[in-house]
Structure formats: structure tokens, C-alpha cells
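User: I'm putting together notes for a lab meeting next week and I want to include a structural view of one of the chains we've been expressing. I don't have a solved structure, so I'd like a prediction I can at least talk through. The sequence is below, exactly as it appears in our construct file.
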Amino acid sequence: MLSLSLRIAVKALGRHKLRTALTMLGMMIGVAAVITIVALGTGAQETVSSDIQSAGTTLINVRSGNYTRGGEESNIAAGLGSAKTLNIGDAEAIAKLDGLRGVAPIVRMRGWVAGGGSRDFTSVMGTSEAWPAVYSERMVKGRFLRASDVRDSSAVAVLGPNLRDKLFGDENPVGESVQIHNQAFKVVGVLDTSDEDQAESVYIPYPVLEKILDATNLHQITVAAVHAGDTTEISQKIRDLLRERHRLNSAELAERMRRTGLGGDQMPRSGVGVADDFTVKTQAAEALTKGLYTSVAAFILANMPKVDQVNMQEMAGTLSRAGSTMTALLVAIATISLVVGGIGIMNIMLVSVTERTREIGIRRAVGARARHVLMQFLVEAVTLGMCGGGAGIILGFVASWAVSALLDWPTSVSFQAILLAVGISAAVGVFFGFYPAERAARLDPIEALRHE
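Assistant: Thanks for the context. Below is the predicted structure for the 452-residue chain, given as C-alpha cells.
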């Protein structure tokens, strides 16, 4: 019966193609509005989330060596002060921890960078392909380093925007060559960053810079957590992991250092093992403790979980407010558009019932029941709504792409939005088509047959 009703509906709608198309137009615009606004809202929330995460609250810096000035006064182990205690194995081990967005090994030096007829004394950063994910950076031109560049120690470089301006001016440097430490590097991209230090730097694969420095150690490992509220907990996990990897929990090592006096003030006052030979700090902790006395800084660090919790609440509140605003806008516009489309469907179905009154009478006379007539017109209304909804989905994709391309506004069309549009199309067809269908089903067969 459903299949028969669907065939009748298609034939009936096909008899008046222009009228059907105009009726579908209202539904199409309503569904396209839903798709487009959901895409804009989702894109905006993702942008807000990305901006909050890139504000530094999710970053953790692991530096080689450990020295705390005045730590003895606050019963804090001062550390050994060594600057060659981190390696790529440490970075790979940290990357296996849960809750991380990225891990970037870093080797640094300052030197001359020449290219485009100019040169500049600046920071040379040896890193990996994980840098953009860690710092949420994009590219102005070209690309960043790839895993194959790091693996093969390729002589490629990425310029910060300020360094690009100093060396090449307004010209596109991608494909050009720069000289670093008397070695030629091919420029493959220009980084898009607002950080002053990063904008002045040049980025090359860290194995290449290690070779230039004749070293195998890392100066720093920068870790990005997925959630701002997890940074303190992840910092502690990193510290425990590195102490285990560097064998700093060894009671035998601690006892030997005590006997020989090698540890000195660097030995912890309590516990097993020796002080860290590395430093782990969240970027939020570094900002809060910068320039403070050691005792005050130690108090702040002890309460960092509470600070992280505040950051997380602020982020959640910002996202919630942005989401609520977008949802309200979606409901308002979609409701107006869909009501207009639904009224169009109801209007055309009432006209169709009037035009086909004699047809209804004949069907009832040959044995069709009221529920069969109800189903026939209800299926026709749903078909009208679904066809308009399908066309609206396509229009919504096109509109989302056009807004993103013309206004540079981020959009994201989700599968849930498509399902929502399909569901709304069917629901509108049922809701606004039920009254005309019920009116058709209630027609008296005798009166219907007399209708001219």
C-alpha cells in the first residue's frame, strides 16, 4: 500500500511541475538555512575552541637541565644544572601518553640566515612536523616540515613571517634558497604566527641542526594537551616518566652520590633518588611565576591544579555562551523558514484535495477506506517535503562553501546536521500535510462523486 501511494504521489506531483517546484522552493530554502547556520555555528565554536587552546593554557615546556635559584631556602632540590639530559627517545616516550594533541622536539641556536640578497642574525629552530599541531599555527605560503623531511634529514626550511620580510620582502620565497651555517636550505613554506619570537625564526628538521651543532640532545620538548584543565596532571606524568627513563629514582645512585658528595645541595631532603635533571612547567605556570621569589612561586605551583580548573571553567563558559548564541540564531531563522515552507505544502495539498475530490470519490466507491486516502495524501505531502529537503541539503552545502570562500568564515557541515535536515523535512511534511490528508479521508463518497 505504501509503494502504491508513493507511485500515485509522484504522478500527482508531476502533473503540475511548476506548482510543485515553487512549493518545494520554500522547503528547500528552509532546509538550506538549517544546514548553513549549523555549519557556521559549528565552525565558529571550533574556531573559539582553537583560539582558547592556542592561548598558551594547554602548553607544557620540558627543558633540559634543572636549577632553581634560592631553592635551598624553600627546601626545593636545586637540580644538577646539566643542559644535555633530553633526547629524542624522551620525546617519543612522552608522545605515548594520553590526552596530548602533539609533542614537538626542539633544538635551538642563534646564527646568520642569508637569502634574497640580505641576511639576519636570528634564532634557528630545529623541530619536527608536529610543531603546527602543538602551537595551532597555519601557513601563509607553502607547507611546514614533513615527517619525511625529519626522517631523511632534508635540507629544507620554513621562515617566520618577519624573517621572510627581512630577506625577501613581498616576494614569495617558496622554492628559493637560504644559507644557514654555510649550508643551503630550500624554503618550503612561510609560517603564519603572531608570536614575535616565532615570527623572527627559521625552522629546519631537528636532526639537521643536531648535526650542525655536533650534538644528539634536545634543548626542549614542547607538549600540547588536548584540554587546558589537564596540564598539571600531564606535567606530573611527564616528570614521573622522565625520572624513570633517566634512572633518577635509583636508591643505589642516590646512596653513591651521598657517599661521594657529588650531589651536594642537589640531593633531595626526603624521598628516594636524586633531583630532576630536567624542568617541567606549564606555560600558565611560567607566566604566573615569572619574576617572583622562589617561595612565592613554589606556593603558586602547589596550587596550579586550582588555576587549571579556573581556566577550564572559563573555556567551558566561553564555548557554552557561543554555542547558546548560535543555537538561538539557528532556531529563530530555521523556524521562520520551515514554517513558511510548511504553509506552502499545506496550501498546495488543500488545492490538490479540492482538485481531486472526484478521484477520491471513485476510490472510495470501489472499496478504498478512509485510512487509504489518508495515507495517499500524507505520503504525497511527505514526498513533497523530502524532495524539497534533499534539494535544500545540496543548496546548504553550496551556501556553506560560498560563505567560507567569500567571507573567509570557517564552516563545518556535520553528518548530524544532514540527519537533522532530513528529519525536519519529513516532520514538516507530516505535520503540515496531515490536515489536508485527514480532510480528504473524511469526504463523503457520494458527495465526492457528485463534485464537478
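A couple of points you could mention at the meeting. The longest strand covers residues 100-115. Residues 69-81, 262-272, 291-301 have pLDDT under 50 and may be disordered.

User: Perfect, that's what I needed.
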